Every structure is written in structure tokens, then in C-alpha cells.
């Protein structure tokens, strides 16, 4: 994934996360339980962290280069879709089975951060 694409996707995810955060704080507060609202909040928090992570990875790419950072960006995006997406759906629908796929998104996040560490330690600087 190219740097500009990663920055654009990170910014788009920040836009979505801010909207979801506002919707959770104002629109959902009286519609879903406190437990489901906490799940919604977790989804927003991880989306924000990893959208910013995508932007940081893109900014590191010219300096560190390498496929590791490209894959880190892809895994962060996939993690947002799977982790945060499944939690958003769980909070809205109450379908507990959705929680079974959430950890796969978490594994994507973990792998992405390991790739960032790998790139910082092992990739030759450009």
C-alpha cells in the first residue's frame, strides 16, 4: 500500500471513528445498555488508535521503507474492519456470536505492531 493511500485511509478511519464516537455518546446512550455502550466505546478507541497508527506507518515508510511497513498498514486496516467492525455490530445487534471473530482483528493489530518493530530494527534506513 502506498503512503498516500495509507494516510487517506487512516484519515477516513479517523473521520468514521469520530462520527461513531459522537453517535455513541449522543445517539446510542438511551438506545442500548451500558454494557453494549462500553463495547461500542472499545470499538471506537481501537479504531482511533489504529487509524493514527496507519498514518504513523505511512510517515515512516519513506524513512524505513520495506514491505514490513506496507503489511503493517494493511493489517491495521484489516484489524479495524474485523475488530472494531465486529464490536460495532455486536453493540447494535446484541448478537454475541460476533464476538467470536473480534480476536482475529486483535491478532491483526498485534502482527501489525510487530512488523513496525521489525522494520525499525531490521530494515536498512533509506
UniProtKB/TrEMBL annotation:
What is one Pfam family matched by this protein? DUF423
Transmembrane ranges, per UniProt, are 7-26, 38-61, 68-91, 97-121
Q: How does it sit in the membrane?
A: Multi-pass membrane protein
Q: Which InterPro entries match?
A: DUF423 (IPR006696)
Subcellular location per UniProt equals: Membrane
Task: Write out the GO cellular component annotations.
Answer: plasma membrane
Q: This protein's superkingdom? A: Bacteria
Instruction: Please tell me whether the keyword Flavoprotein is annotated for this protein.
Output: no
UniProt KW keywords: Membrane, Transmembrane, Transmembrane helix
**What is the similarity comment for this entry?**
Belongs to the UPF0382 family.
- What protein name applies here? Membrane protein
What is the organism field in this record?
Herbaspirillum seropedicae (strain SmR1)
User: Taxonomic classification, please?
Assistant: Bacteria, Pseudomonadati, Pseudomonadota, Betaproteobacteria, Burkholderiales
Amino acid at each position: 500500500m502506498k503512503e498516500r493511500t495509507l494516510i487517506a485511509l487512516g484519515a477516513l478511519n479517523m473521520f468514521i471513528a469520530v462520527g461513531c464516537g459522537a453517535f455513541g455518546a449522543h445517539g446510542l446512550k438511551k438506545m442500548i445498555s451500558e454494557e453494549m455502550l462500553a463495547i461500542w466505546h472499545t470499538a471506537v478507541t481501537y479504531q482511533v488508535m489504529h487509524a493514527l497508527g496507519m498514518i504513523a506507518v505511512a510517515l515512516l515508510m519513506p524513512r524505513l521503507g520495506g514491505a514490513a511497513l506496507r503489511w503493517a498498514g494493511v493489517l491495521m486496516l484489516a484489524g479495524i474492519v474485523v475488530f472494531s467492525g465486529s464490536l460495532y455490530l455486536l453493540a447494535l445487534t446484541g448478537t454475541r456470536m460476533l464476538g467470536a471473530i473480534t480476536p482475529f482483528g486483535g491478532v491483526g493489530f498485534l502482527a501489525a505492531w510487530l512488523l513496525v518493530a521489525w522494520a525499525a530494527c531490521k530494515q536498512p534506513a533509506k
